[in-house]
UniProtKB/TrEMBL annotation:
It holds the Pfam family Bflower_2. InterPro entries: Bflower_2 (IPR048910). It comes from the Bacteria. Keywords: Signal. This is Uncharacterized protein. It comes from Chryseobacterium aquaticum subsp. greenlandense.
Length: 136
């Protein structure tokens, strides 16, 4: 029994160690993105997934969108909802700027006010979580 508890605690620690924290503008933890693309809320309940092929799924594994290799963000019907440029500028489908993902992980709205922090998280993933496919 002790071995099972030890193994479980090691596995949990490893999964948390590989998680990047999503924070609000006031540094409160909003959730986590695990290195395998699992999106968790602040209580570590799974909210969704970002697959290696760019498919974005909800917690029931239903597809809710796509991240294309060129930074285009699409909904489940393959309609473009936005873009993430290499410099971190986030645009809506009309190419109007709606935010920025800085190299240091700071997430800003279109007025450059900080709305969150996603240090160590790919810009496209952070944009999906903060701007496009918000989990309720």
């Amino acid at each position: 029994m002790k071995k099972i508890l030890f193994i479980c605690s090691v596995l949990f620690s490893l999964s948390v160690a590989n998680a990047q924290t999503l924070e609000s503008g006031s540094h409160n933890t909003k959730g986590y993105i695990i290195s395998d693309g699992t999106i968790e809320n602040s209580s570590h309940s799974t909210m969704g997934y970002i697959k290696s092929d760019g498919t974005v799924e909800n917690s029931n594994h239903s597809t809710i969108g796509y991240i294309k290799s060129d930074g285009t963000i699409e909904n489940r019907s393959h309609s473009t909802v936005g873009y993430v440029k290499k410099d971190g500028t986030v645009e809506n489908s009309s190419h109007s700027t709606i935010g920025y993902i800085k190299d240091d992980g700071t997430v800003e709205n279109s007025s450059h006010s900080t709305i969150g922090y996603a240090k160590g998280i790919r810009k496209e993933w952070a944009a999906v979580v903060y701007f496009f496919f918000k989990q309720n």
